[in-house]
Structures are given as C-alpha cells and as structure tokens.
Amino acid sequence: MRRGQWQGHSGVWWLWAVGFILPAGCGPRAEIVLHQPFAPPSQQHLQLAGDRTYFATEGNQQVWAATFSLPGAADGPRAFVLYACGPDAPGRLPVAPLEPTAVSGFVIQEVGALAGRSDFLRGTVTCHDVWLAPNLRRVDFDVWCEDGVHLTGRAVARRDPARVRTLEREFAGDVLLVRHATAQPAGAIGTGPRGRGDATPGAGSSTPQ
Question: What is the mean pLDDT of residues 175-201?
C-alpha cells in the first residue's frame, strides 16, 4: 500500500474511532424519556438529561444509578432517581422483578404531585463496554413499569462505586426490595407509589448527587 493510501485509511480509522468514543464525553451522559399516560398532558412525555450517571459491579452483578433534575434544569436540584441492577454481562438483558438472572429497578420522582416510585415490570436493558474506556459503560433502556410508565433512553455510566453506594444507603428500603429481599430492614422506609405526592426519603433534596 502506498504512503498516501495508508494515510487516507488511517485518517478514516481515526475518525471512526473518535466517533465511537465521543458519545461518552460530549453532551449529557444520560438522556431518558418517561412516557406517563396517567399524567397531565404537559407531563406525559418527560425528557430528562444529565451527567450524574454511575455504575458499579459486585460479584456477578452490576448496578446502574442516575439522578436528574427537572426537565430543562440540568444543573438544578435533584428531582428524579433511576436505579437498576442485573447480571454483570454484556448485551441485551430481560427485565423481570425478583429474577436473579434478569434486571430489576425503579425510577423515583421526588417532587411534585406525581412524586413516588415506579417499579420495573418488563422490557430490556442493553449494556456494552465503551471501547478504549474501561471505566465507562453504555446502557440502553426500554422498560415498562408496573404503573404504566414506559421508560426509554440511553446513558453512558461512569464507574463510581462510592456514589452508587451513597444512593443505595439513602434509598435502602427501595433498593432491598428490587434486589430480591423479602422484607425491609428495621428503620428503612420505602418510597410510596407514584401520584401520591409524598415520596420519601429524598424528597425535596437540594443537592445534586
């Protein structure tokens, strides 16, 4: 191969490589849409975006956690929490509550009349490593919740066990239920269902995490 041809091919390869990596570093790390048929018209399709998206691994399990502000206020106070756990395996994973080989999780709205928790019911979560970035994972969500919410979108999660554990402690009652516990520990209070306006704990948090 002549020098000019190699330079041309190497340039194409470099552009392809940069294009593959860029989604992990440009724009919001997570973009999620909550399709909520029960909500008022202005809230039936909530578009959430933010950079606070993390993952951790523990044994043969992986955990994803993300927090979001209200739509249009990416740097505002925390208003939504997304949490999911499943097998530490690449590819498409089924969503099924209380199945150790599937993904379970929830999304919590912390403020407003629709505050509360929506639990994953069915769907898929697809996870892949990011090429040349071992501390990043790309996750795609297509999940229906028990209350009719349809959650779609994608995230590039950064490995950060400390932040994941912090959220797990704050929402211990919710986390234990989706991680196959049969009962909440003494003193742990789970979040109520959506629509009651009394989500606890974490409601009204003023500090993004």
Answer: 64
User: Whole-angstrom Cα distance, residue 1 to residue 102?
Assistant: 49
Those residues with Cβ within 8 angstroms of residue 60's Cβ, 6 or more apart along the chain or in another chain: 87, 88
Residue of higher predicted confidence among 193 and 182: 193
Q: Which of 82, 72, 65, 75 is nearest to 43 (CA)?
A: 72
Query: In DSSP terms, which residues pair with 94 in a beta bridge?
Result: 124
CA distance 174 to 193: 11
Q: Which amino acid is at 28?
A: P
Q: Which residues pair with 91 in a beta bridge?
A: 127
52-65 CB burial, b ≥16 within 10 A, e <16: bbbbbeeeeebbbb
